Amino acid sequence: MALLQALRRLGQVAPVATLQDWPGLIEAYRRWLPVSAATPVITLREGATPLIPAPVISERVGRGVKVFLKYDGLNPTGSFKDRGMTMAISKAKEAGSEAVICASTGNTSAAAAAYARRGGMRAFVLIPDGYVAQGKLAQALLYGAEVLAVKGNFDRALAIVREVADTYPVTLVNSLNPYRLQGQKTAAFEVVDALGDAPDWLCIPVGNAGNISAYWMGFNEYREAGHSRTLPRMMGFQAAGAAPLVLGHTVEQPDTIATAIRIGNPVNRENALKAKAESNGDFMAVTDAEIIDAYKFLGSGEGVFCEPASAASVAGLLKRRDEVPAGATVVCVLTGNGLKDPTTAIEHNDSHFHTGIDPDLATVARVMGF
Ligand SMILES: *Cc1c(COP(=O)(O)O)cnc(C)c1O
């Protein structure tokens, strides 16, 4: 660090921001957010995630299309939920709240737990029993949340937490909480800041539809302020077994390997439909097989490990690739880190995993194919 500063003074290194300079998204985008001097900022320095070029996927799409991955799995708790949670928890703290509650397919609970505890609040999280990836459960427990695994799906758990928050002194931090989307819209700002304009397409996985709504809000605010000239087409992808926005009706028993989007009754349905209509976008379903193909391809082709739900964005792009205009810029949002769900990675990969190898050179060389 000292060396870098010395080189900068000598004019040897461009004065680029280091990650240590990044104050977290509330400070970075303060004037775009509903915070004031009275708001206690609860932050883990979330945001500023990389927009990674994806040459192998670009090649697959062809015709000079440039694909980028917005890798939000690099947030402090490993998903984009941190963007919304720094806002929701800071505002809950400002309002004097002492406890928060959410229903979660896993990532919201991890983020709620981390930020609530950092803000000195209790965190109650309701998760669908048996349908939360290992890493996410580990996080909620380690961050010190009070975890309630309910015998029902996410939609049922959400109905319960809404009632709890209406009845008891506990703040709801699901994406019904308007501050969540405010924080999440900053991802769109970062995309525009990185590209110099909005992409032509934004491909994004859709569960409760908060994130697609937040991106659309962010792109619009930035364009109205003159930071971009254009708006993207919003392309939302749902898992085929949990695709209420594609089917046009609630799904009673949502089912998919992509547990983060295993949601049958999206809370932000209206906002998402508006984003689709206004952006000339679309919703489409991708099968679990297509999701797993994209998931494996992202890892072995691009060196990027995301969770299965995140790969729905790339699965969707590949499905619709013939419709992408030649030379267009496409951003696929990778919502969560692959380490969240090691079980799926170990069960679904094309790697060679040789076990029981005798510990000698001859055997190792033989197995290596020499
Ligand atoms: C929450 C989540 C989603 C879905 O986002 P919505 O705002 O509910 O549409 C997608 N992927 C991951 C990894 C998530 O945690």
Task: Give an overview in words.
The chain is α/β, with parallel strands linked by helices. Helices cover 42% and strands 14% of the residues. It contains 16 helices and ten strands. It has helices at 2-9, 25-28, 55-61, 81-94, 107-118, 134-142, 154-167, 178-184, 186-195, 210-224, 244-247, 269-279, 288-302, 308-319, 342-347, 361-368; strands spanning 51-53, 66-71, 99-103, 122-128, 146-150, 171-172, 201-205, 233-239, 282-286, 329-334. Strands 1-2-10-7-8-9 form a six-stranded mixed sheet, with helices on both faces. Helix 13 crosses helix 14. The protein starts with a helix and ends with a helix. The structure holds pyridoxal-5'-phosphate. Pyridoxal-5'-phosphate binds at residues 79, 81, 107, 175, 205-211, 260-261, 307, 309-310, 335-336.
Summary, kept brief:
It contains 16 helices and ten strands. It is globular.
- Dominant shape: globular
Broad structural category: alpha/beta
Mean pLDDT: 95
Per DSSP, what share of the residues sits in E-state strands of 2 or more residues? 5-15%
Low-confidence stretches: none
Indicate the percent of residues in helices: 40-55%
Please give the largest β-sheet.
Answer: 6 strands, mixed
Rg of Cα set: 21 Å
Number of strands: 10
Spatial order of strands in the largest sheet: 1-2-10-7-8-9
Helix count, DSSP H or I runs of 4 or more residues: 16
- The separation of the N and C termini measures 44 Å
SSE pattern, N- to C-terminal = HHEHEHEHEHEHEHHEHEHHEHHEHH
**What ligands are attached or bound here?**
pyridoxal-5'-phosphate
